[in-house]
TrEMBL record:
Keywords: Cell inner membrane, Cell membrane, Membrane, Transmembrane, Transmembrane helix, Transport. The chain crosses the membrane at residues 12-33, 39-57, 88-108, 120-139, 159-182, 213-233, 239-260, 267-286. It is found in: Cell membrane. This is ABC transporter permease. It is a multi-pass membrane protein.
Length: 327
């Protein structure tokens, strides 16, 4: 308990609570249940992708193609649903096809990074460009709207359990599943081992290539889940609607305490980072800040948070080094 109270996650909880109190004075609407649920719902897609990105960042990688992969899966899945009968089968097809497409695209990234040894940033930038181009070619830049969606999917998108949207519940399930994988499975422990010390992990027999393929494939799997959540949230598909979202995903992970260079990161921290990012954006909207300034303020807050985290980390490392020398 004492360890948790002193952890990075606890400091994020403190910032979130402070922001909530401040924004409650700015707008009485902020602390209403409907607004808080809207914040969670609006940021669930970012959250799903951020959870997957956490694993990649822990191992020292990066994936800037996540938004493009999600957009591609959205387009393909919706086009398949539109030619299927308005039946439970079309909904089942979406939940089968979307994750499988994501896994294939993610695994391709993983193979290029691990087997051909191309830096992850280069591979995923290339993949992002290719996929975005293909999506625009397939759709001609035209929206796919809900008028052509199967009614069963619209009904699914509107599901609420105890007043909580199915989209939020999907995010919660993804976060719990990923936390469980990291904590209780062999591959999860290998991810954490590589994050802790890659050289030592490889020396004791951990297959680094296998772990890389896994984290990119899992990222693709979650991109497929995010595609379903995104389509359910917007009830449309905008070919350009997710451009730049990968930066928000990475920002949420880093705000949650992950080291962008690898080695550190937790699922709880990432979830809190998503919540913090969502609260900041929602607060700026309620405060009626101009949309352009919203981006400026969000960027400044992210830079300050990351800088503070890095200074804290360096200070703790210096203390550890000092203790080792004295010992």
């Amino acid at each position: 308990m004492k360890t948790f109270l002193k952890s990075k996650e606890m400091s994020i909880v403190g910032v979130v609570l402070l922001l909530c109190i401040t924004l409650a004075f700015v707008s009485p609407v902020f602390l209403t249940a409907d607004n808080l649920l809207d914040v969670l719902k609006a940021n669930s897609v970012i959250g799903i992708l951020a959870v997957g990105m956490t694993l990649i960042i822990i191992t020292g990688g990066i994936d800037v193609s996540v938004a493009a992969v999600t957009s591609a899966v959205c387009v393909i899945t919706v086009k398949l649903m539109m030619i299927m009968p308005d039946h439970f089968i079309s909904l089942l097809l979406a939940f089968l096809v979307a994750p499988l497409l994501g896994i294939l695209l993610g695994a391709l990234n993983g193979v290029l990074v691990s087997k051909i040894k191309i830096p992850a940033i280069v591979v995923t930038l290339g993949m992002m460009s290719i996929i975005n181009g293909l999506v625009l070619y397939i759709t001609n830049g035209v929206y796919l709207n809900s008028s052509n969606f199967p009614q069963i999917f619209i009904n699914f998108a509107n599901i609420k359990i105890f007043g909580v949207s199915i989209i939020i519940l999907i995010f919660a399930a993804v976060a719990f599943l990923t936390w469980y994988i990291l904590k209780y499975t062999l591959i999860g422990r290998e991810v954490l081992a590589i994050g802790g010390n890659k050289e030592s992990a490889v020396r004791v027999g951990i297959n680094f290539d296998k772990v890389q393929i896994f984290v990119f494939s899992y990222m693709g799997f979650l991109a497929g889940i995010a595609a379903i959540a995104q389509t359910a949230y917007t009830k449309s598909v905008d070919p350009n609607g997710m451009l730049g979202l990968e930066l928000m995903v990475i920002a949420a992970v880093v705000l949650g305490g992950a080291n962008i260079m690898g080695g550190r990161g937790t699922i709880l921290g990432t979830v809190l980072g998503v919540l913090l990012l969502g609260i900041i954006q929602n607060g700026l909207i309620l405060a009626q800040i101009d949309p352009f300034w919203q981006k400026v303020f969000t960027g400044i807050i992210i830079l300050l948070a990351v800088s503070f985290d890095q200074l804290q980390y360096k200070r703790s490392q210096n203390k550890l080094a000092k203790i080792e020398v004295e010992a």
